[in-house]
Design goal:
disordered N terminus; 2 domains; four-stranded antiparallel β-sheet; five-stranded antiparallel β-sheet
């Protein structure tokens, strides 16, 4: 199935894919992500070539991302960010932080206007899993290029939440979070990933790691 056809089946789920082709068994395309002035949580739900480092997916050879800042979160470190800063050509520290499908990170837009970022790559296929580290905040996103309710969206299909887990989404410009809490009877409100290429904090309040598994085939 073409990625465009797949995205068309999602109904109320917001999508931003603009152009797609299929080569062999892979769905290839691009998504546009609008970055508001200030802090944004972003993700790249495509497999880029040759990799998903910041230097590859946010190529800064001409200084177009000068003064932009990217922070990658590492829950394994407890509390810790790795930072990349755009300069006149390239990124400080080489832009070696990754933004693989399933990961999310902070991107600071220093300008006063929104900026559109285009990610190009292959849609992840097969079964892919994001690990949610125990007793920690995890900065994550859908592995697949989709958005909406992370539980009822059949492509996100996150049903492994346990009581007391939390989702925190960020609204650029408003400088504030929306909190979703899992109760004994389920989520108090539906946890939403608002945009394709967005992300959220997931607080795993359990003593063991949890997993979020997503599956997709172009033949679906």
């Amino acid at each position: 199935m073409l990625l465009s056809a797949l995205l068309g089946t999602l109904g109320s789920v917001s999508v931003m894919a603009q152009s797609t082709n299929v080569y062999s068994l892979n769905a290839v395309g691009y998504i546009n992500v609008t970055v508001q002035p200030g802090f944004n949580i972003i993700s790249c739900p495509l497999i880029a070539s040759p990799d998903n480092t910041i230097n590859t997916i946010l190529t800064n050879g001409n200084g177009q991302y000068k003064k932009f800042q990217f922070w990658a979160w590492s829950p394994a470190k407890g509390v810790g960010y790795n930072e990349d800063v755009g300069v006149g050509s390239g990124w400080v520290n080489g832009g070696t932080n990754t933004l693989n499908p399933g990961q999310a990170g902070w991107l600071f837009n220093p300008s006063n206007t929104p900026v559109t970022i285009t990610f190009v790559g292959t849609v992840p296929s097969g079964t892919n899993t994001t690990t949610l580290v125990s007793n920690s905040f995890n900065l994550v996103s859908s592995i697949l290029p989709t958005s909406g309710d992370i539980v009822t969206n059949s492509l996100m299909n996150f049903t492994n939440a346990v009581k007391k887990d939390q989702v925190w989404t960020w609204t650029p410009g408003a400088v504030g979070y929306t909190e979703y809490v899992n109760t004994p009877s389920g989520w108090a409100a539906d946890p939403i990933q608002t945009n394709v290429g967005g992300g959220f904090w997931y607080l795993n309040n359990q003593s063991t790691n949890n997993t979020w598994t997503q599956s997709f085939s172009v033949n679906q």
